[in-house]
Amino acid sequence: MILRRPVMDIESWSTDYPIKKESWRTVLALAYQSLGVVYGDLSTSPLYVYKSTFAEDIQHSESNEEIYGVLSFVFWTLTLIPLLKYVFIVLRADDNGEGGTFALYSLLCRHARISTLPNGQLADEDLYEYKKEGIASSGRGLGLRLRSTLEKHRVLQRILLTLALIGTLFSAVSGLELVVSKHHHQYIEVPLACIILVFLFYLQHYGTHRIGFLFAPVVITWLFCISAIGVYNIFHWNPHVYQALSPYYMYKFLKKTQRGGWMSLGGILLCITGSEAMFADLGHFSQLSIKIAFSFVVYPSLILAYMGQAAYLSKHHIIENDYQIGFYVSVPEKLRWPVLAIAILAAVVGSQAIITGTFSIIKQCCALGCFPRVKIVHTSSKICGQIYIPEINWTLMLLCLAVTIGFRNAKHISNASGLAVITVMLVTTCLMSLVIVLCWNRSVVLALSFLFFFGSIEALYFSASLIKFLEGAWVPVALSFIFLIIMFVWHYGTVKKYEFDVQNKVSLNWLLSLGPNLGIVRVRGIGLIHTDLISGIPAIFSHFVTNLPAFHQVLVLFCIKYVPVPHVKPEERFLVGRIGPKEYRVYRCIARYGYHDVLLDDVEFEKDLICSIAEFIRSEGPESSRSSNNTENEAKMAVIGTPSTHARGIKMWDDEDSTELKEVNSPEVPRKRVRFLVPESPQIDRETRAELQELMEAREAGMAFILGHSYVKTKTGSSLIKRIVINFGYDFLRRNSREPSYASSFPRASTLEVGMIYHV
Question: How far is it, in rounded angstroms, from Cα 225 to Cα 471?
């Protein structure tokens, strides 16, 4: 049996050759590519910042104090948040090259042991990506006390998880609002905007790699246009507009406009929409490439564009309608239509990046058990981060259409996206302050300085966005609240199910009391039992043998576990151990994956699994059979890589394949022959050879996959809220979510589902 053909060769990927160590030519190529993927959103912000700011809260006057004040706010906001905070500080907090809210959360989980799912193992800490060079856990002073406090109090752990989920949700919801706002041009009516949205979401199943080559040229052309128009407007209308970059104009602006100026900050906030993408999309590029692209291309172009608009408006004070305060009015009339066409293309590029980022967010949530399982399609054979999720794609499309048709007013859409954007940044600031103490081992004073400096700026914008709650800002809050309930219900049910497994697992003494035959008939073949447990024997096994007293001659308890790192190297994929004495032929195999890894789609998983067990048997040595402490033997697990990672390890060949290596052949049977190809050295003792022979015979007889099908119900006497959450909420999500991806990989003819009721 061979699982479905791989979509991409994940085993060829290796963290030994990270992007960061590539040449300058590669770095510049990545910087070029990042312009189309990362900065499509941020680069189109000049389309709506001034228009949203002057929508109704403030008026453009002859004194120009308002327009100069807005320009000063835009300049310093772009300088302090994207440039100083993200480029110079937050990008350094990558999780082995990966970024985003969940990357910060996974860093904290590793350094403070605050994961709410207790399936961690000491062996996980030996993973290549578990710790970074030069960064150690905080081990003294206030940092140690802070870490101990987080580890002791589950309430604080839940608050931290809630923060991460809120940041993730608002990031996705802000994408929804920004997709709508980018197609809400003044020259595009609602029906045409809806058609563009439907077409955009329809293209998603083709994958971003098919149209990605268009992204960077479009954004570069757009940045060149807005910067060139900005330079023209500066020299033609007001060469002295640079004076407005002084912070003094912010003071004059707030002094004159007072409450109206404070409320208009919600529009100014839109100048940094998309800044979070620099961190969220870090895994596709590198720190240096993203820094180069922003510092030398995006940032200067945006500053020139905003200065050019301000220079034009400073000489034009007659306002006939709302559209006079906007981007297109400052474009020379002869260039207006060509620039409009480029702007629409740039908006589509920015929207594409937002949608792709939402797919990545949902994948991370699913991997960490915080979102119901969905279908994940990998659209690229080379880049594992390029994925497509049909359910999320069409849900986003329906929500975008609903917002477009329901609001019709660009001002309300801007209010909604502004609140979502600043919420994500506040969450990043809070998590980043913890990373500074717990992961970077820096002083608490430095962390508090970071928190208060950037937190106060973002809190000011947050308050201005929140005041417009009833004018559109309620949309991201409502959508995030709905998704947050879904995620908490799923996570709560998942944790309770795991706790039931741990509390009801079968003791090793029960297995030993059954004898080598386990008290049942042992038939030829391999029985693969999937379980979420990393130790002990699952209750599903005793439930199975009690009702059907027969099982296979080789029993494998198999667990798929996500660890809080982006990737697990192929040579560290499996943890293999033995349960009970050798003659029992019971093994435990744990396959470890990072939250960005592709699960089981890209390897001949069956061969990898059998070869990992065979390699464990060969490397275990004869002395293990003399050990009398079976509990200690169960706790000992060896790290075994996939066959492609160890050239001198055991290989498995089917049928007539041959090799010069020494062979252990099975007797002639009327089935497909299987061979283990064993290196000549070290020599294998007779007992090990016999165990390999039996494993090979069992493999020839076939494999059966036993999957647990659990029905989670509340115990008698549970509270009303718990009964609603588990019996209705979690049960509804479980019945309507996708089955695990590994389950769909197993052949139906060899799969057996064993049902159990979990009373939690």
Answer: 33
